Structures are given as C-alpha cells and as structure tokens.
Amino acid sequence: MTPVVEIRNVAQFEGQDVFIQGWLYNLRESGKILFPLLRDGTGILQGVVVKSAVPAQVFEAVRALTQESSLRARGKVRKEKRAPGGYELDVAEVEVLQNVSSERPYPITPKEHGVEFLMDHRHLWLRSVRQRAILGVRHEIIRACRDFFDDRGFTLVDTPILTPSACEGTTTLFEVEYFDQKAYLTQSGQLYNEAAAMAVGKTYCFGPTFRAEKSKTRRHLTEFWMVEPEVAFAQLDDIMALAEGLVAFVVARALERRREELKTLERDLSKLEKCAPPFPRLAYDDAVNLLKEKGSEIAWGSDFGGTDETILSESFDRPILVHRYPSHVKAFYMQPDPERPEVALCVDMLAPEGYGEIIGGGERAADERLLLRRMDEQKLPREAFEWYLDLRRYGSVPHAGFGMGVERVVAWICGLDHVRETIPFPRMLNRLTP
RNA sequence: UCCUCGGUAGCUCAAUGGUAGAGCAUUCGGCUGUUAACCGAAGGGUUGCAGGUUCGAGUCCUGCCCGAGGAGCCA
Asked: What is the ipTM of this complex?
C-alpha cells in the first residue's frame, strides 16, 4: 500500500511511491512541464509533471491549480539537485480536494505586503514559511520552560483568569461581567502562586495575561503569555540563579532543536550562542551610573524608560540581571532590602541586542504589618486581599518568584522587530481580529 | 492621552495644481528543468470620509475615520 508521507520525511522514501497531502504553495510552468510546489505544514516539496508522462487529465488538473488549493498527490520520490530541498516528487496522480476560485484568489501572494494587510489576514499568513518557523520556535520555547520546571521538582498549579481585583493595583485591567458583579481578566498569577508555593513548595503557572493599557509599541500586546515560578524559602539570589538557569536553558534548547527555523528567520546564531551563564548582575545604582555615563538623563529613583532599557541591554552581549530597584517604583508586595529599606529585593532581566525586559520578579514581603502598610499607601482595598494576608498569618516564610513574558523571549530569540509575529493571533490596542 | 509619518487597482507603490500609471495577482496565449521562472495580451479605480479654496484637486486648507512608529505605562 502506498504510504502517506510528511514532507519532512521524504528523504527516507527515496525511490518509493508515496502520497503527499497538502496545499499548492506555488506553481511554475514551462510549456509541457509543470513544477507545483507542495506544502504540507512540515515542509515544501517540488513536484514535477511532464505532459508526455501522465494522462492528460492529470496534467490539466495540476495546471489549473491555484495558490493554496488543497490536494493529495501520488508520485515517486527522487533525489534531485535542482529542486529546493534536494528531493522531488514525480507526480503520477492527483486528487484535488478544493481548488481555490480564481474569482477570489488567495490574497497573500509571493510578493511583499504591508503590516496591516498581513495582520488582517493573520489566519492565512500563518501558512507562510516565516510564520511557521516562528510558531515552531515559540512551541519549543514553551516546551523548554515546562521541561525546565518539571525536571526541577516544580508543580504546575493553574491560576485563575477571572479575578475579583487587580493583582498589583497599578495597571489597567479588562473588566468583564460576572453574573451580578464585576470581574477582571488576570494580569498575573503571582498572588495565587504564592498560595500554591505554601502548598507545594515550588510551583509555576503558565497562562495568558491581560493588560488594558493603551501601549502602542513593538514590545506590547494586550493579551500575552507568562510563565511564573514561585519558590517557598527562596531569596533574591536564589531566584536570580533560577531566572538565569531558565533563560540559558531555553536559549540552548532553541539552538539545539530549532536551528533550521532560526536560520529561516536569518537569526544571527552567534549572538544567541554567547548567552551562557553567568549573566552579569548589576545593582540598580550601578545601572543608573552606567546610563548617566552613556548620556541618559535618568535620575536615581525613577524607573528606566524604554530608551534606558535599550541602552543597558545593548551594553552587554548576554542577558543582564538588574536588582534592587527603589521600592516606590515596584509593586506593594516587594520585600524591602533590610540593609537599605529604600530599595526592594527585586530583579529584572534585560535581554541583549536592545530587546529589553523579559523577566521581572523578586522576594515577596513576608510580614503582614508591612504588607498592610504598603497596601494603605497604594490605596488598595483590603477586603479583596484578605485571603492573601492569610498567607502571612498561617506560617509565613520568605519566598520569591518571577514572571517571564513569553512573547518577548520569542521576539528576542527569533530576532524579530515586533512581538506581533510571536503569537498566533495577537491582541493589541487596535487589533481584536481575526 | 500626546507627538511624528502615512491612506491611490486585490497587493506593493508612482503620479510640478492640468488626460490616474507600473510591477505582482487574476484571465487568455507562448515556452520540456523552472527556482518570488520568463515573454506577450486583456480586464481591473467614488485616490479613506465630509466640507472648502480654485477655471481645474490624488496633490492645497479644515474637520473626522483608519493604520504605522514612538512617548507615557508595562512582561
């Protein structure tokens, strides 16, 4: 029986008769010979149809194929230097599943298109070689994150997407109707992670996150994915090491298993290969001094602007860990440094090459009275956080964690200039469809 | 919310205030090894919307809509 073969495996079937099922990527013709390029989601294979070698209806069926028509083709796999990929299919028979109407041809042609047009056709754009490569790298990065934590004794504990209130009280949330009350889409699983860490010791959550900010930049989405570990008894140095280990593991895994995709994306692999531990650690104070030397107008006490982040991240050839920011620019639950209460035991990781912040986290305040004071300062409604305060009343321990933005990591590893291509269906300020 | 740039054929773009064009895509024709194939022909337009200036507006002015980049805010 003739086997159905995935294009990525055709080399193993050289000389054999096989079925390929997929879509027409492109068709070139030269009189009595046709070159249909077949795409099946695993690769692209060039077919050859010679008029004198096949029944007339086979030749005509292939000649009439339009871009992205679906089909099943039978033919012999042959090694062929002139074909892209090195193998070719001598098509003997073709079954057209659906021919795309020429009245309404496939909109994405093999030529250039603008951003808006491509985003409007995102559901079709995903079929392109480049987008498929990005989806592959994204998948590998997500899998690597899971493997990293699973192999180190972490328990995945899913945190809710519908929440009764803000996790951090600062950013703008999406409000939804929840029967007769208001609910909000989560902006972080962190507070729930802290509860989970008190139950299982080492935990992580991995899910979508929502921010209703009207940010319109190359590094913002309104819906994005975060992986957030939380570890009981961990302190700042512990989670800095954890963050470093995670990022180094993810980069190494992408280089190991997705080299082809990264080459398709024309990524400079030498830059990624440098991203091995140890990553430089830089106190906020030193970062401010470095920025001043490089001409920034930043003053001690303020958070880094986009430009500052870019300058810092371009100053090193691997990710850097910036720690101990001023407390007042960070969330209410950050633990102050006992030796310098004006700074928090927190850390951000900035990716190199100007990609900026990919991780943010730190040690959580373990003392109930401190938390209450900071919640008052930030005018947070105490009732909503009673359950969270319970964590400090029943066996409070030092603990720490962080969140990593998946899309920013994908953008960095793939070398993309915008996060909109890192997620299958991006949600942005001006984009809710498709 | 603010600043900058943009919106012309299905797509990517051109057009001193004076007859709206090209490449690709589509259709038809040609070509037995093409590599975003190539060659020839045809069809395809309310120049984002609404006003205004002018003998005449794609072009100048006003308002609005949509998009891109950035700022603020953030992962």
From this structure: 0.86
